[in-house]
Sequence to fold (621 residues):
Amino acid sequence: MTDASLQAPTLLLKPDAARASRLRSFRLKDNVFRHLTRASAVAVLGILSGVILALVIGSWLALSTFGIDFLTTESWNPVTEKFGALAPIYGTVVTSLIAMLIAVPVGLGIAIFLTELCPPVLRRPIGVAIELLAGIPSIIYGIWGLFVFAPFLQATLQPALISTFGSVPILSTVFAGPPYGIGILTAGLILAIMVLPFVTSVSRDVFETVPAVLKEAAYGVGCTRWEVIRRIVIPYTRVGLVGGVMLGLGRALGETMAVTFVIGNAHRISGSILAPGTTISASIANEFTEAVGELYTSSLIALGLILFIITFIVLAIARLMLLRLERQQGA
Amino acid sequence: MSLMAPIDHSASRPRYMRRRRLNFVMMSLSLAAAAFGLLWLLAILSTLVFKGVGGLSLDVFTQSTPPPGSQGGLLNAIVGSAIMTAIGVAVGTPIGILAGTYMAEYGRHNRLTTTVRFINDILLSAPSIVIGLFVYEVVVIQMGNFSALAGALALAILVVPVVVRTTEDMLNLVPNQLREAASALGLPRAVVIQRIAYRAARAGMITGVLLAIARVSGETAPLLFTALNNQFWSSDLNAPMASLPVVIFQFALSPYTDWQQLAWTGALLITLAVLTLSIAARILAAGSRK
Fold:
């Protein structure tokens, strides 16, 4: 409402009435604004329930056709319309595990470097650089993985792994087969590079919550840097670190483009991590627009539902852990 | 004097040396980790510049995506990305700001806020391809065709959690005395929020919007089966629309070298745009803290 529209009645009415009408308009606007903000907050919850609802409805056909077997069947055959989610689930879990096996120790190492070793002048630039890298779109990692990293692995790491472990009983299966370049291992390594900035920046933030007094006390009784980290910093931040790792895991599980480029999109479970495979998100990205038939589409949406449930659980645990750290700090 | 030197050192020396050695090994490992991590990230960026710069020319910005083997650029993809990002941000930002306002101003400690914060944090890192599936179910199937509008909506859903998060954080930083002073003057709550709290938190909130733009402008997965792709120039919101990330995806996986070159150029452009936005957001946030 503009001032002019308010002033016209003011002149005509008695001051009390003008005041009352003005207050009424204030109250109305106040209420409208408050309900608007509240509705928006509820809308955020609405998005989540909408996503779950839409996925359940979309996947109903596949889930009712295949039942629980959908989770345990490996075959994925568009021609005979037999679909099972086991291979993508397996690929998702294995690539994420490889990623976390590498990203967690390296990320912690970088965080330790940043908080304990790094000269203060370099601390901010390196920290900012890592945060910026966390924002680089995943498709960039994908295109790099396909054109640079996969050929590099094919020429170096993969032949080395095959020849080194070729005669070791179990490992010879894990590292069996020709070096394709693309495959489960390559996808896992790309994911590792991708989640590294996340793990690093969360661990660094968490490390910085350790009160200086605690560390100074430990240094005071003669602890080495490593002992301070091992005995003071890590125990103090344990909950937050687990939260940070889970957050990275959530990212790795749901990551699509970086993986799609280098996984090979083969719906089978192979004992060798050098073989091509697929993940849930890569299957959806590769096949969704080409899926013919309702059952095929519905099966892909069912994959999406499974992915959403897995990441939801992992991310929920991560958040609860980080919340516990916040409370511990507040107390 | 002679008492000081040898006595208890001889007993504890091996242990002390062991601790020193362990410390040295661990600290070297952490240094190596930092070098290792930064090395890969540097490798990616340098390849990007190295491969992308070669394809940069005026054509990239003035022509649409070509059929294989002929000249062309990325104009339709750049414009498509800009249109869908703009709509996505225009739709997602108000919802995010209002929701963040509720959480920080009206219901700071109530149940709804706690729940929304928890869910919002999960949406913040939820797989974006699932959002694509959601919009496909809700919009594409209902409307009967792939469209730029569906793509923009998928992006809007990704914008919301980012903006909610920063808005709430920034409004929580506004000192309560400001609000109390305004209320003491008799201003209604809504005016206190709009005129006082928003103004105090403005830089931070703009930072949030910039970060949201940076995030969605590189998103590929949610566009794959909502906006699809379009070989030609199109500004029709009701039709499929090209976007930079999807074109990169398609061209990079194609067997044609000229398409692959365009993919690298597009990748460089996106990265530059995203980095510029994040740096701008950071400078703004740093400036407001002073």
The radius of gyration of chain B is 26 Å. The CA atoms of residues 149 and 160 of chain B lie 17 Å apart. DSSP finds twelve helices and no strands in chain B.
